[in-house]
Inverse folding.
């Protein structure tokens, strides 16, 4: 092989998992998940995790290995991916990292800052204070203590605002300051083939709509009900479609309205993903065809 690892990014529903699976079969590879939602065990349908038939074709790592009620972080992902890389290479296979989470790709290639862990007592106190003050006042308090980090956030971004406040309280340093001190990613120094799959927008929207309909047919509503009661501040609560299907279960939306809302939110999310990739992955190989054969051929010319 001319490369040590393959990285395949792309927005949700871009077909990257299908392409990665076909490529892995051709080159003797194994798939390693780079999607922050596909790590959750209880959300197989809503996160479009690979099905049983796909799992038998090549090894799959870091899929569904975390409980939804865990606070899974990018730092934990980096450590898990480091171990997965060792496992795949020990098998004599080529690791094919595939997903849509830009921060996780950064963790792989550039590393993350070595931020000390935040004690649970500090995290609990931050959450409690936000409940008392409200989102806007809590954000104003963060802005006064850590204007640099706050300038990159907005008050409604609960998870990131809490994270910034927790780090400041636990370490006495701003999160932005910590993030300037990058570590070393697991893929540093390796020969990489890096791709972004970005089909035409109209086709991407068609796939998003068709996939959500397929999820509902496969039992997404029932899966969402089993996740009812999940703390909305947890990362898993951001699974696309979950909020809307919870609203159906609570009688706040009918199914058709929920479908429309979920599909719209997913399209907006895909747009943000593409924007992020275009700013941060300018030197990656962009494959913008919707033809599967052309995509696979485009990857093989760099890999085989």
């Amino acid at each position: 092989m001319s490369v040590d690892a393959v990285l395949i990014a792309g927005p949700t529903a871009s077909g990257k998992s299908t392409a990665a699976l076909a490529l892995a079969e051709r080159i003797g590879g194994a798939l390693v998940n780079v999607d922050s939602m596909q790590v959750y065990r209880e959300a197989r349908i809503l996160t479009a995790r690979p099905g049983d038939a796909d799992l038998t074709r090549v090894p799959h790592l870091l899929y569904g290995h975390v409980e939804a009620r865990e606070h899974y972080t990018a730092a934990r992902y980096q450590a898990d991916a480091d171990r997965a890389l060792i496992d795949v290479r020990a098998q004599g296979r080529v690791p094919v990292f595939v997903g849509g989470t830009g921060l996780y790709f950064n963790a792989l290639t550039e590393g993350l800052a070595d931020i000390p862990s935040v004690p649970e007592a500090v995290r609990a106190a931050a959450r409690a204070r936000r409940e008392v003050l409200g989102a806007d006042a809590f954000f104003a308090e963060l802005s006064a203590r850590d204007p640099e980090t706050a300038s990159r956030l907005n008050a409604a971004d609960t998870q990131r605002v809490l994270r910034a406040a927790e780090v400041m309280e636990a370490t006495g340093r701003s999160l932005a300051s910590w993030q300037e001190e990058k570590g070393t990613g697991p893929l540093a120094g390796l020969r990489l083939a890096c791709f972004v799959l970005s089909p035409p927008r109209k086709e991407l929207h068609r796939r998003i709509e068709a996939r959500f309909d397929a999820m509902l047919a496969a039992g997404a509503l029932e899966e969402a009900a089993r996740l009812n009661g999940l703390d909305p501040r947890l990362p898993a609560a951001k699974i696309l479609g979950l909020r809307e299907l919870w609203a159906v279960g609570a009688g706040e939306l009918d199914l058709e309205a929920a479908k429309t809302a979920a599909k719209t939110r997913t399209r907006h999310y895909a747009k943000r993903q593409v924007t992020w990739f275009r700013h941060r992955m300018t030197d990656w190989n962009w494959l913008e065809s919707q033809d599967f054969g052309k995509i696979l051929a485009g990857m093989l010319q760099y890999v085989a």
